[in-house]
Specification:
The structure holds 2 protein chains of 2 kinds. Chain A is of the alpha/beta class. Chain A contains 6 helices and 8 strands; from the N terminus they run E-E-E-H-E-H-H-E-H-E-E-H-E-H. The interface between A and B is medium-sized, with 37 and 26 residues.
């Protein structure tokens, strides 16, 4: 493990070459390491997500979290930014892909990078991680309980959220999916459907559905937190990245 | 789950936020994850003035039962008031 790290806010080119704010965490005593783009959940670019970003640096990875709401609410508190983005219809998929692409390119440009990059996202970020992996050349992707990958959202949902399972044929990398058996969004049936589609396309994937866990089981600040599922999930994430992000 | 369902309506009035009173222009209502309240899902209301920036927001996160009780209380207050006070335009 890397005890020494540098974690800070920097500006990088995102979608369309526009500068966006990101949180970057780098281990200071490693060379030739893989990178992880952390896609924040809908409540925003917040303290919890920055902790997750630092966790990856602690485990020896370059890690970056783009502020997906930077254009709507530059400099705003995370919850105000999330509310503004929600009222505006959410983050457009095309822009998300551009921002993640910019973040991946930035990681690859760092002198300690081995050129390999993964995405990981939770909840809305899970769907976006899948979307990014189908749209960009990545080395690994993790989808933590992303809703509406397979199923359409109910009426009245944000305009930016549409199923993306139709992109499965262009998944560029191995995919790790972590889900809760008690989750309704996505349901185990939807998870099964995604597995079926990925298998039909001959993709490499590993899915785990945890009993006694529902949505947001990784989130330590909510009653949905499930320690057993989260601890096992983290082990699987680092095993997965150890295999696919190694130099 | 993130529900993504969001209702936005235009409103007229004032709200008091972190920096004091300001005019309100719209309200966003959604049942989704809270930022501060306990529980996995709350009824969240953002009363906003977008022209004044993201921080011009009065935010509520209520458990669903409290939100229903509040909704009833709002309607009861309006119904109990003289029509001239509680009609469109908010004269009073």
């Amino acid at each position: 493990m890397s005890d020494a790290m540098r974690a800070e806010t920097v500006m990088i080119p995102g979608a369309g070459g526009e500068e966006i704010e990101v949180y970057l965490a780098q281990p200071l005593d490693r060379q030739g390491v893989g990178g992880v783009v952390v896609i924040h959940h809908m409540p925003g670019y917040d303290e919890g997500t920055k902790e997750i970003t630092r966790k990856f640096a602690y485990h020896g990875y370059l890690a970056i979290c783009p502020n997906l709401y930077w254009r709507e609410a530059p400099g705003a508190d995370p919850d105000d930014a999330a509310a503004t983005a929600r009222a505006s219809g959410g983050v457009p998929d095309e822009r998300l892909v551009g921002d993640v692409g910019g973040a991946a390119a930035y990681l690859r440009s760092l002198p300690t990078s081995n050129g390999k990059v993964a995405t990981i996202g939770y909840c809305s970020g899970g769907r976006q991680s899948f979307l990014a992996a189908c749209s960009l050349a990545l080395d690994a992707a993790v989808d933590c309980y992303g809703a509406f990958v397979v199923a359409a959202p109910p009426e009245g949902a944000l305009a930016s959220v549409r199923p993306v399972v139709g992109l499965a044929g262009t998944l560029s990398c191995p995919l790790l999916g972590l889900f809760g058996a008690e989750d309704q969004f996505p349901t185990p049936a939807e998870v099964g459907e995604l597995e079926k589609v990925l298998a039909e396309h001959g993709k490499t994937f590993e899915f785990h559905v945890y009993e006694d866990a529902g949505h947001a089981f990784f989130n330590t600040s909510r009653t949905s937190y499930r320690a057993e599922a989260a601890n096992d999930g983290w082990e699987r994430i680092f095993d997965f990245f150890g295999r696919y992000l190694a130099g | 789950m993130c529900t993504y369902q969001t209702t936005t309506i235009a409103v007229r009035g004032s709200g008091k936020g972190a920096s004091g009173w300001f005019a309100l222009h719209d309200a966003t209502v959604y049942l989704d994850h809270p930022v501060h309240a306990a529980g996995d899902h709350t009824l969240n209301i953002d009363l906003r003035n977008p022209a004044r920036g993201p921080a011009a927001r009065v935010a509520f996160e209520l458990d669903p039962a409290s939100a229903r009780a509040l909704a009833h209380a709002i309607v009861e207050a309006l119904d109990a008031a003289p029509a001239a006070l509680a009609g469109d335009g908010g004269e009073g």
